[in-house]
Specification:
Helices cover about 30% and strands about 20% of the residues. The protein has about 325 residues and is of the alpha/beta class. α1 (about 15-20) packs across α9 (about 285-310) and α7 (about 255-260) runs parallel beside α8 (about 270-280). The protein starts with a strand and ends with a strand.
Length: about 325
């Protein structure tokens, strides 16, 4: 199979990069506006991301087979009653659409929060799909959970997959039966700075008794506390405060990265607060990897079948009685 070239938009710290390269891909372009995230990206993949995607000349983006983008979830308040591109002007999704219009990669994989599926009475997602379809893509979408793909984190995200070739038959990846236990995620000998104050610890212990050890305790906005043998969804800002390991300490930056599927070899080159933010914004690597693997498989399998069909068939009419093909109904030429 030929090498799959991909671009990584709104790249963050490279969740898509890890997933696509694990599927045999090669990153030929990356873009990330956050300087700290770009710093981590370059340190780990030796690729310096371009900055603001709205400032990038599309003609400078290399030809690629796969466009990956975990585009930011904006309010999309700009969407009106127009059609196609006009409804997306001014949003960062439109930057993706502009690239697709010019570069036309055969495959696309987009990721966003699950609320995108219902935002504005489903009109937002409808406009996104209509825009992709108007660009010639056959698209499908589904909400997937990282918990179903080996990670001990309940993180639901919408994945949108598209193909220029409408003959491609895509199947969503099958769920795994188990996920990695927290014991393989949590660190030993954690620094005291990660432990909650005595006041918070006492409050949690008085309000909740967990069935799980180790477990991650979650306090919602109403103050209700629950605990599970997995983490609730990490967030860029709030995760540090509302998730506690066994009700006593916060997750470390390394633990948060592990909960997103980043390997232990991933270099932490930013501050704790920046790394927590980066992990909270990242895509779950194993989940996205499973999707990309199926996308590439579906596309290459269709191409293989079409290549085989280049051998067209002809009827036996026109052959003489002496021909050794006379008794065969079809022949390949």
């Amino acid at each position: 199979m030929e090498e799959i070239k991909f671009i990584d938009l709104f790249a963050g710290i490279g969740g898509f990069h890890l997933a696509a390269t694990a599927c045999g891909g090669k990153c030929v372009f990356a873009s990330e506006i956050d300087l700290e995230a770009a710093k981590a990206y370059e340190a780990n993949y030796d690729i310096k991301p371009h900055g603001d995607i709205t400032k990038v000349d599309i003609n400078e983006i290399p030809t690629h087979d796969l466009l990956c983008a975990g585009f930011p979830c904006q309010p999309f308040s700009i969407i009106g009653n127009k059609n196609g591109f006009d409804d997306m002007r001014g949003t960062l999704f439109f930057e993706i659409a502009k690239i697709l219009k010019v570069k036309k990669p055969p495959m696309i994989v987009l990721e966003n929060v699950k609320q995108l599926a219902t935002h504005d009475s489903k009109r937002t997602l409808t406009k996104i799909i209509e825009t992709l379809n108007s660009l010639g893509y056959k698209t499908v979408w589904k909400i997937l959970n990282a918990l179903d793909y080996g990670l001990p984190q309940k993180r639901e995200r919408i994945l949108i997959v598209g193909f220029l070739d409408h003959d491609v038959e895509f199947s969503w990846p099958k769920k795994k039966q188990t996920y990695k236990p927290l014991s393989e995620i949590l660190e030993d000998n954690v620094d005291d700075k990660h432990y909650a104050s005595a006041r918070i610890y006492k409050k949690r212990q008085e309000k909740h008794t967990s069935k799980y050890s180790p477990g991650i305790w979650h306090e919602n906005k109403s103050g209700n506390i629950s605990s599970y043998p997995f983490s609730c969804a990490l967030r860029a800002g709030a995760s540090y405060n509302y998730l506690l390991v066994d009700g006593e300490r916060r997750l470390t930056p390394r633990e948060m990265l592990r909960l997103q599927g980043f390997p232990n070899g991933f270099k932490i080159v930013c501050s704790d607060s920046q790394t927590r933010k980066q992990a909270g914004n990242a895509v779950p690597v194993p989940m996205v990897k499973a999707v990309i693997k199926e996308v590439i498989h579906a596309s290459t399998e269709t191409a293989r079948q079409k290549k085989q069909k280049k051998y067209r068939t002809v009827s036996d009419r026109g052959f003489s009685a002496e021909s050794n093909l006379r008794d065969k109904s079809l022949a390949y030429i």
